[in-house]
User: Fold this.
Amino acid sequence: MGTDPAPVTLVVGDEELLADRAVSSVIAAARAKDPGTQVHDLFGGKVEPGELTRLTSPSLFGDPAVVVFRSAQDLGKEVIAEIVAYTKSPSEDAVVVLVHPGGVKGKALVEGVKKAGAAVIAVSKLTKAGERLDFIKGETRNAGRSISGAAAQALLDAVGNDLRELAAACSQLAFDTPGKAIDEAAVARYHRGRAEVSGFTIADSAVEGRLGEALEQLRWALATGTAPVLIVSALAGGVRSLAKVGGAPRKLRGGQLASHVGMPPWKLDRVKRQLNGWGPEGIARAMQAVAVADEQVKGGGTDPAYALEHTVQVIVASRTGR
Assistant:
C-alpha cells in the first residue's frame, strides 16, 4: 500500500461520494500499516471537549487509532481550538480525519488546521460535464476496463449527474460487459434494461415468485426516482388481478371471462399463467400486505423502501407453489 497517512487530514468539499472515499483511503492506509488500528467515527455536533485527547492518547493495548470527525462544521468552539492545537503537535499513535463540506460554517477549523499543517483533500462537486466524463473513465479504468468517449457521454445522458449512481452504473457495466472495452451498445443495453423497470415489472416478478429479481428491480426503481406510491399501486394491481381471475366463475371462458374480469385477452392469459401456485388464502394474505404498505407509504410509516421490500417478501412467501 502507498505512503503512510498524514497525522491530520482535512477532507473539504460537498461531494459526499468522494468525501467517503477519501476517508476510506486514509483508514485503509492506516490499517495497511497496522491491521490492529481502531476506528472511531464521531459527528460534529455531538463531540465533547476532551474527547480528541482521550481517543488519540496511546491505548493500553498499544493499538493505534483513526479518529474521524464527520460534519466538522458543527464542532463547538472549544473542540475546534483543541483540534487546531492538536494538529500542531499530533500524537504518533493516531490519525485524525476531519470531514467538512466547505462553506462558511466552521471556517475557523478549516483555516486553523490548514495553517497548522494538516494534509488537505479537496472533494468539490463535479460541476462540469467534462469532469463527470473523466470520473466515468476513471471508474471504468479502476475496474480494469476502458470506455469510449461516446459511450461515456451516453452513460452520463442516461444516468444523470449523481456520482453515486454513475459509480454504480460503471461497476455494473464492468461486471456485465464481456471483453475489455465498454461501447455505446453496452450502455444502451444497460440503460434499456434499467429504464424498463417499472412498478409493473416488480409486481410481475413478485407474483411469479421471483424474489431476488423483484427486490433488485425494486431497489433500482427507488434509486432512479420511481415514486413508492406508484410501486405500491402496481403491486396492488398485480394481486387484485390474481383475485379477480382466480375468483371468476369456472364456466366462463375466453372472451366472456375477459369481459367479466375487465381485462384484455393478452393480460388475462398472463394472469392465468401467474395464478399457477396461488390459493385463496395466499391471495388474501398478499392483499393484506399490500394494504399495509399502501398506508405506510402514504405517511403511516417512516421508511417506504423497507415497507416495500417487506411487502414483496410477503407476496412471494404467500405463493404456495414454486
User: Anything to note?
Assistant: Residues 242 and 310 are 20 Å apart (CA to CA). The radius of gyration is 27 Å.
